[in-house]
Design a protein that fits this description.
- Chain A: One of its GO terms (cellular component) is RNA polymerase I transcription regulator complex.
- Chain A: InterPro entries: SL1/TIF-IB_Component (IPR052669), TAF1A (IPR039495).
- Chain A: This is TATA box-binding protein-associated factor RNA polymerase I subunit A.
- The complex is a heterodimer of chains A (about 425) and B (about 625).
- Chain A is mainly α and about 425 residues long.
- Helix content of chain A is about 65%, strand content about 0%.
- Chain A contains 20 helices and no strands.
- The longest helix of chain A is centred in the middle third of the chain and has 29 residues.
- Chain A is extended.
- Chain A starts with a helix and ends in a 15-residue tail after the last helix.
- Chain B has about 625 residues and is mostly helical.
- Chain B contains 22 helices and 7 strands.
- Chain B has a 3-stranded antiparallel sheet. In chain B, strands 4-5 form a two-stranded parallel sheet. A two-stranded antiparallel ribbon of chain B has the order 6-7.
- The chains are: A mainly alpha (about 425), B mainly alpha (about 625).
- Chains A and B meet through helix 1, helix 2, helix 3, helix 4 and helix 5 of A and helix 15 and helix 16 of B.
Chain lengths: ~425, ~625
């Protein structure tokens, strides 16, 4: 029996290049082998291979030109390739058939869910190496069509799937993690449903226990998975929401902090946003909030939370913070998305006004503006900007005009109506 | 180990694929229930209703009460590989007869050829058979000398009898133990022997070669190209021909390696095979192929002219040229061990004749033929013809490619070379079928090539629906011919041709790829057109054109063996040299090359002919042939 298994597996190396399709969490990939050309014409090609090669070319052509009917017609002729005994790359062709078929099914107007199920089931079992991946994709498709229960069954089945040596493979383990994560996410969704339907009526009923059950199932997996470096945004949110609901604030905060500050994780601005939002929701002291936003500012200087950050800094008593706020807003305004934002300019005005209470405010401003004075006027204060601003937002013109002289004292271009003729 | 064997025994009769994963690999659990060893799916042991539209997950398995747990695997007849081939040959011949070939093909010709082949290749009817170590070929027929004695027994007996009569070859049951599995008895020895003596044993490709020889023997109007086209379109069984073997003859294991076909052999390879077979068979002289025979270029050219929508008048010129080349003589076309022991490629030769004729009449040098194309009316216009043909050719090529893409090659029967592989193969087949069915339903179009009725013509000209364009057969060539000294001659005066030196056949196979870029485009297009029509490589047609030209021009100036390679080079230049000459229409200057001499000859040759001379011979033929189609 072992022989059969080996035969079905084909050679191990053949599948290495499948990493090309791997998810974002994959941190490896340094040792990728170049995929072999699967469908090149060879001088001594048999008629069978010629047929399948040309057929594949036609399918690809039809797909590229969105001729789905034609693609489906040729696809009906292609599966004979699966029976090819003369190739050691049968797994690759299985994958090819799987991906082509699902793509055509996605686009073809007459495709039904039964077709999907049939194709997914067949492809799942015709090569163990893709089993988990196809399970995952299958459940995604079921989810898209609103079959949450079915999708969850699929994922649960995939979760308990074992195939000897093969399931110990690193790549398979990664997919298993994904499958667990999505299964837990579905648990969370069912939990949410139950929360909204039952919780109000009777908080201590059986259904509440049932709900807690789902929470337990989900949290066991999620807790484990969220330790793995990666981008887990939706999973984090759902986990935190559940923890929050059961008032396990400490754990929630821990998870979020870990997600934001663990260096093994890829840099992820959202991690800090979530942490900030959580802290804000739980009325954490301002200093903590500022600390979180400070890191976010380094990662994404144009983030929408920067307005809040500057206002927090402005409210602070310390002198340094006002200067920091000035820097934050100036940096924001360098980005196109903030360039003509009234709130940002107003905030800048507020900061300047607050600075002006101090003696050395001019030094501070010119200090901050030193590196910007070369390009700021051209970016903000030309007559063209004046015209567009006055058309779109007259209030902005006022704010900007009042700041012109302060920010750029030796301005040559003019941000006013008068100089147009000059 | 023991357990596995037990399981095998229990599950031996149960060969249904698993519902979950399509594997056929059943084990018996402790509770006595069947489970799939591949996906561990436990089933109620059932007999499943075969339903190809079955989708997993949506249908229930129906249970039927216990049958006998172990089913004895049925054993087929014990048979020889040769019998298998005999059966396939018989089916092929029957298919050809259904298509209209003379019924003599099967009993009188093919059967004899087959017997002769078996005898000459030492597989039967001989004292020292090749594959003797397993099968004892002795028996009543062994001391026969020639195949002629067997003419009484024909392949066309009824099925049962055929098998019975052919078991004469194997002398079944005398000293041979029954093989471990059913299937042919000598596949293994056949394969090893095949590796040792690769040429003499039967292969699938040889069936086509044999049939081709038989067709030439009875002078049937089917060229090798036609035969291969019929094979490719599935009118003659070849791909998966073993499916038609009777139930008693089961293919097992190694048999598949012998009978499985994954490609349709090329024109060139089958011709080569037939040539080799001819030497093995050592046949007496073939029935003569005279100019009344449909394989003779005189009539075959008419068919190609019709197919390509060329004017009938051109046939006259083809016949003249044929005479000039000495190709009208039947000895050139008849296989005879004394005079000609090569199998002529009738189709390719005729195509080459037409190409040379067109060169003589139209020029085909990218200049002359277009200069004459201005006229209208009842005159043949090459420009118009080219446009029509080019459009039709592109369409036909596209259709051919689409058909190639849609062609289904795999057998409906289980094909696996070893027992262990079988379960994998069955599973793959099921998977492929399911995917195919799914997409057939989705696209509401069955997979595979749509069967069309067999036709000797690829193009269709005339006014009917689906025609490739209007017919030009009735148009005259007056536009390109002028009356000189009372004789119709082509208007342009020179004929170009590439260097005609012979080169070493073994060393340099084809110069076509090297010369192709320098040849006139129209000429290359003509070659491509004909090579599409005949499904041969343009290179081999090009060689044939050169051969015809050599016959036309070189016959009077015998080719000298002393010509060296350096000369080859200078000679290739003469081609480009003489091309502008057609424009100036001056006679070639005093050049000492034998080639230029031949050029002057070509010019005067059509002149020397009176127009009436060939008419007496060819005209009536032309008429009759036209009424045929």
């Amino acid at each position: 029996m072992m022989d059969d298994l080996e035969r079905e597996l084909g050679r191990f190396e053949d599948l290495k290049h499948e990493d090309d399709f791997s998810d974002d969490n994959s941190t490896r990939g340094s040792k990728r082998t170049k995929p072999r050309r699967m469908h090149a014409e060879t001088p001594r090609e048999t008629g069978f291979h010629q047929s399948t090669r040309i057929c594949l070319e036609h399918i690809r052509e039809a797909l590229l030109h969105h001729r789905w009917q034609e693609a489906a017609e040729y696809m009906a002729c292609y599966p004979q390739k699966l029976e090819d005994t003369a190739t050691s790359q049968s797994e690759q062709y299985t994958e090819l058939v799987w991906r082509l078929s699902t793509e055509i099914l996605h686009q073809h107007p007459n495709s039904k869910l039964d077709d999907y199920n049939s194709i997914y089931e067949r492809m799942k079992h015709s090569g163990i190496r893709h089993y988990l991946m196809i399970c995952l994709e299958h459940s995604f498709h079921l989810l898209l069509n609103g079959h949450i229960e079915n999708a969850k069954n699929q994922l649960s089945a995939a979760e308990s799937w074992r195939y000897g040596k093969e399931s110990g493979h690193v790549r398979q383990q990664q997919i298993v993690k994904l499958i667990q994560a999505y299964r837990s996410l579905l648990d969370y969704m069912i939990w949410c449903d139950k929360r909204f339907t039952h919780f109000d009526t009777d908080p201590s009923s059986i259904s509440n226990a049932d709900m807690h059950n789902y929470f337990r199932q989900a949290s066991v997996n999620l807790k484990e998975i969220l330790r793995n470096p990666g981008v887990w945004d939706p999973f984090i949110l759902s986990y935190v929401e559940m923890l929050d609901f059961y008032e396990d604030y400490e754990e929630a905060l821990n998870v979020l902090k870990n997600y934001a500050y663990d260096n093994t994780f890829p840099p992820n601005p959202n991690a800090h946003v979530y942490l900030y939002q959580y802290l804000k929701r739980h009325e954490a002291p301002e200093r903590k909030l500022i600390k979180v936003l400070k890191i976010l500012q380094v990662l994404v200087p144009s983030h929408e939370l920067m307005l809040e950050y500057s206002s927090l800094l402005l409210q602070s008593e310390r002198k340094k913070d006002t200067q920091k706020a000035l820097e934050v807003v100036l940096e924001m305004l360098a980005f196109a998305c903030w360039k003509s934002n009234l709130d940002a300019w107003k905030r800048l005005k507020d900061i300047i006004e607050k600075l002006q209470l101090e003696k050395n405010w001019k030094d501070v401003v010119s200090d901050k503006m030193a590196e910007r004075k070369n390009w700021w006027p051209a970016l903000h204060f030309t007559s063209f900007h004046f015209r567009t601003d006055s058309e779109e937002n007259p209030e902005l013109v006022e704010v900007k005009a009042s700041l012109t002289k302060i920010l750029c004292p030796d301005l040559t271009m003019k941000y006013s109506a008068g100089q147009e003729s000059a | 180990m023991f357990e596995a064997n037990m399981d095998e025994e229990w599950t031996a009769g149960y060969r249904e694929p698993c519902v979950q994963c399509s594997a056929v690999d059943w084990g018996v659990s402790d509770e006595g229930r069947f489970y799939c060893r591949s996906c561990h799916n436990v089933i109620e042991r059932t007999r499943e209703v075969v339903d190809p539209t079955f989708t997993p997950g949506s249908s229930r398995v129906s249970t039927i009460g216990k049958g006998s747990r172990t089913k004895k695997t049925e054993r087929g007849h014990q048979w020889n590989i040769c019998e298998g081939f005999q059966f396939i040959l018989k089916k092929q011949a029957e298919a050809l007869i259904r298509l209209g070939v003379s019924p003599r093909l099967k009993d009188e010709v093919l059967c004899e050829l087959w017997r002769l082949y078996l005898q000459k290749s030492g597989q039967a009817f001989t004292d020292r058979p090749l594959t003797s170590f397993r099968v004892n070929v002795r028996g009543l027929d062994s001391d026969s000398e020639s195949a002629a004695e067997f003419s009484g027994r024909s392949v066309s007996d009824t099925d049962g009898e055929t098998v019975a009569s052919s078991t004469v070859l194997s002398n079944a049951g005398s000293s041979v133990d029954p093989p471990p599995c059913s299937g042919s008895s000598d596949a293994v020895s056949y394969l090893t022997a095949q590796q040792l003596r690769s040429s003499s044993l039967m292969t699938m490709r040889k069936t086509l070669a044999l049939i081709h020889i038989a067709l030439v023997w009875i002078r049937e109007a089917l060229t090798l190209s036609d035969l291969l086209r019929l094979v490719n379109e599935g009118h003659v069984p070849y791909v998966n021909a073993f499916e038609e073997l009777p139930d008693e003859m089961k293919l097992e294991g190694k048999d598949h390696l012998i009978f499985k076909v994954e490609t349709i052999p090329s024109h060139e390879s089958v011709h080569k095979e037939a040539q080799a077979l001819l030497h093995v068979l050592q046949l007496p002289p073939f029935p003569p192929i005279s100019c009344q025979s449909l394989l003779h270029p005189a009539l075959l050219s008419l068919r190609y002219l019709t197919e390509l929508n060329l004017p009938d008048e051109l046939h006259l010129w083809v016949c003249r040229l044929m005479e000039q080349a000495g190709l009208e003589d039947q000895t050139v076309h008849t296989v005879d061990p004394l005079t000609l022991y090569v199998l002529p490629r009738y189709g390719v030769q005729t195509a080459a004749l037409i190409v040379v004729t067109m060169k003589a009449v139209f020029g085909v040098d990218d200049l002359t033929e277009w200069e004459f194309s201005g006229q209208t009316g009842n005159l043949f216009n090459l420009r118009r013809w080219y446009k029509l043909l080019q459009a039709a050719l592109i369409r036909a090529q596209q259709n051919k490619e689409h058909d190639t893409a849609r062609k289904q090659w795999r057998s409906k029967r289980d094909v696996s070379t070893s027992r262990n592989r079988k379960w994998v193969a069955v599973k793959k087949k099921r998977t492929a079928e399911q995917v195919q069915i799914c997409f057939e339903r989705l696209s509401s179009r069955p997979a595979g090539v749509e069967r069309i009725g067999p036709s000797s013509f690829r193009f269709c000209w005339g006014d009917e629906d689906g025609a490739d364009g209007p017919g030009l057969h009735h148009l005259t060539l007056d536009g390109v011919l002028t009356l000189k000294h009372g004789v119709l001659t082509p208007s342009h005066s020179t004929y170009w041709h590439p260097a005609l030196q012979q080169c070493n056949y073994w060393r340099c196979r084809s110069h076509y790829l090297k010369f192709e870029p320098t040849l006139p485009r129209m000429f290359v297009w003509l070659l491509k057109l004909f090579s599409f029509l005949l499904d041969v490589k343009p290179a081999s047609l090009y060689e044939e054109v050169l051969r015809v030209e050599r016959r036309v021009f070189g016959s009077r100036t015998p080719w000298r063996k002393t010509e060296t390679k350096t000369e080859t080079k200078t000679k290739t230049k003469t081609k480009t040299k003489c091309r502008p000459k057609t424009k100036t229409k001056t006679r070639p200057e005093t050049e000492t090359r034998p080639e230029t001499k031949t050029k002057t000859k070509t010019k005067c040759r059509p002149k020397t002919k009176t127009k009436t001379r060939p008419e007496t011979e060819t005209r009536p033929e032309t008429k009759t042939a036209k009424t045929d189609r």
